[in-house]
Amino acid sequence: MMTDIIPLLPVMIPLLAGIVMLFTGRHNIFLHRVISAAAGLFLVIVSIFTIIYIANNGMVVTHIGNWQAPYGISMVIDMLAALLLFGTALVTFTVVVYSFQSIGVARERFFYYPMVMFMITGVNGAFITGDIFNMFVFFEVFLLASYVLITIGGKKIQLQEGFKYYLVNVISSNFFVLAVAYLYVSVGSLNMADIHQKLSAFEGDTAILTLIAVVMLFVFATKAGLFPFYFWLPDSYFAPPLPIMALFGALLTKVGVYAIARTYSLFFIDNIGFTHQMLLFLAILTIIMGSIGALAYTDMKKIIIYNILIAIGVITAGYAMMDESGTIGATYYLIHDIIIKAGLFFLIGFIIYRTGESDITKLGGLIKIHPVTGWTFFIAALGIAGVPPFSGFYGKLFITESLIDNGHLIAAVIVLLSSLVVLYSVMHIFISVFWGESMDFTKLKPISYDKLLFSSFIMIAMVIILGFGADILYPIFESAAQSLYDPASYSGYLLEVE
């Protein structure tokens, strides 16, 4: 089987772009901008092509160096990975464009754009690797780049929170290696599809598998920000500038959720009564704690950050059911949240850069001078809350249906109530900032903001497309969810190898 180039492009494009920018020197900012924007746009095109290709031909697999699975390293793109690659590519391109007018020349000179590209290399690699150890490797790639991004600029709060972020992730990474080692000792393989097939006929001590499930949940829950391991997230995400905040908020927590969904659907299927119920329990607690945080603050950044936790809990609740409705809903909401969170961070970033304030009690009346931005924010508020017909509605609909069908009525009610919390918290921003008592408009900063609004409008337009095009897109999301509720469809490529 010849090596297929398609699964390698999402990793190769940002990696090569980052390397090229390193060699062009740190003072050639214009070239860095051009290369990073071109790489982001190319990733969008490749991801769209990949979705179409997989819809017509099924999942695509390549074996590095033609070493066949399960002995070699496999890169696997099913529809779930393809959708995540598209979301990542869209966020990458818009963040890069947004950064032109927001990140600042000082940070650009310290290899900001190469670090973004290296981070995306790791994120994409984690989504498409078919090997659990290489998932760890790609985790470390994007974490190393994120360590630089969270501290770039050297402000006190960045260094303080960057150290916390580094410490938490180093500890969880050590446990990741430990879990992989125990898994390899138990089944003798690192290929995820092969592990699934071997565990399907596993006759050893299942207690060790439960232990591995708990350790992996600790690792991935820490990355995703699930309760009680979210303690580091609000302040760490609050510290860096808005473009980096948008990049982290849209993507990094989603890698942790994806890892939970992939490993729990392939590996830990014999003791669902414990492992998946534990997952649901943590998901509900995460929703509750995120809701409390979203209602407690008047700082726009903190409100959206705590809304990240609510979304992580909702998505995880759907994946904990591991049935058709739950996984379809969770997958739809996962892609929706990647896009809407980036869009909301872009919009509040525009407000902050324009006014110099992030506390909504100090703002008001902006609808008079920025009506289009104001109504765009209104649409984003409806979208993130799941108001029909916007995209957030369909994901929560399927997740709630799955929870009720599986007898988790209280969990379903909490998921539904979280929509009201999200709607109130984001509409509170909208009403206070755009319709409150007019602030002193003479204090507005005369900044260039066409690229800030370009990125914002692109993401909110995508939310509208996901909502109004739900019927057309449903088969794609159904195909993406199949590899989770029917894991044999994911591991089936091994039969072709054999």
What is the fold's blueprint, element by element?
Layout lengths: L8 H15 L5 H29 L2 E4 L10 E4 L1 H21 L5 H4 L3 H17 L3 H20 L4 H32 L4 H9 L5 H19 L8 H6 L3 H25 L5 H25 L3 H22 L2 H32 L15 H15 L5 H15 L3 H27 L14 H19 L1 H16 L2 H4 L1 H5 L1
Antiparallel strand pairs: 1-2
Mean pLDDT: 87
| Helix-strand pattern | HHEEHHHHHHHHHHHHHHHHHHH
Category from helices, strands and their pairing: mainly alpha
Domain count: 1
Low-confidence stretches: none
Summarize the biggest pleated sheet: 2 strands, antiparallel
| Spatial ordering of strands, largest sheet | 1-2
What does this structure look like?
The chain is mainly α and 498 residues long. The chain has one domain (2-497). It has 21 helices and two strands. Helix 12 (272-296) packs antiparallel against helix 13 (300-321). The radius of gyration is 22 Å and the shape is globular. The model has no long low-confidence stretch (mean pLDDT 87).
